[in-house]
Design a protein that fits this description.
The structure is a single chain. Helices cover 74% and strands 0% of the residues. It contains nine helices and no strands. The longest helix has 30 residues. It is an all-alpha fold.
Length: 193
C-alpha cells in the first residue's frame, strides 16, 4: 500500500528538524516515486545517454541529503526540490559532455571524424535550460511552473498545490510558457509565426 501524503510530510518535517531516523524511514517511501520521475526525464534524453535512471536518482538523493535543515512544507515541496536537483544534474551532465566534445578531453581524430562530430547539435536539455533561465528572468512564476511540470513531473494539481495558486492558473501559465519556450528554442519570432 503506498504511503499517505501525511506520512511523507511528517517524516520530511522530522528530518528537517534534525531527526536522522526520519530520513531512513523516508527514503523507502519516496524512492520509487523519485525513480519514476527520473525515468520520465531520461525518456526525453537521446538514446545511449551515458547517465542512467538509477544514477540520476542516486545523485539527486545525495544532493537531497545535504538539505537536512530544509523546512519541508509537504510531499509536493519535496518533489519540487527533487525536480530542481534533477534538472541541475541533467544540465551539468549535458554541459560536461559538451565541454568534452569541445576539447576538454581531446583525442586525435581523423578529418572525416571531426566533420561528423562538428555537425552534431548540443543536447536539447541545454537549449531548454537556457530558454527556461530566460523565461524565469522575465516571469518567475511561469519558469517555476515549467520546472515543476517538465522536470518534476508534477501534475497540474500538484503544481498548483506547491505554488499556492489555482489549477486553471497553472494550466493557463503552462500553455503560455510552453509557447514562449518553443519560440525561444526554435528561433521563430512572433512576427514570423
Amino acid at each position: 500500500m503506498p504511503p499517505s501524503s501525511n506520512d511523507v510530510t511528517q517524516l520530511l518535517q522530522a528530518w528537517g528538524n534534525g531527526d536522522k531516523e526520519a530520513l531512513d524511514k523516508l527514503v523507502p517511501l519516496v524512492y520509487e516515486e523519485l525513480r519514476r520521475r527520473a525515468h520520465h526525464y531520461m525518456k526525453r534524453e537521446r538514446a545511449g545517454h551515458s547517465l542512467q535512471t538509477s544514477a540520476l536518482v542516486n545523485e539527486a538523493y545525495i544532493r537531497l541529503v545535504d538539505y537536512n535543515r530544509m523546512r519541508w512544507q509537504d510531499r509536493a515541496h519535496f518533489f519540487a526540490v527533487a525536480a530542481q536537483l534533477m534538472r541541475r544534474i541533467l544540465v551539468d551532465h549535458a554541459r560536461s559532455r559538451g565541454y568534452a566534445k569541445r576539447g576538454g578531453e581531446a583525442r586525435k581524430v581523423s578529418l572525416d571524424e571531426a566533420a561528423e562530430v562538428s555537425g552534431r547539435r548540443m543536447p536539447e536539455i541545454i537549449a531548454l535550460d537556457d530558454a527556461l533561465t530566460g523565461l524565469t528572468r522575465i516571469d518567475e512564476r511561469k519558469g517555476r511552473i515549467v520546472e515543476l511540470r517538465y522536470f518534476g513531473g508534477l501534475s497540474i494539481e500538484e503544481t498548483a498545490e506547491v505554488m499556492g495558486i489555482s489549477s486553471p492558473t497553472v494550466q493557463r501559465e503552462w500553455r503560455r510558457a510552453k509557447a514562449w519556450l518553443h519560440r525561444e528554442i526554435s528561433g521563430v519570432e512572433e512576427d514570423e509565426a
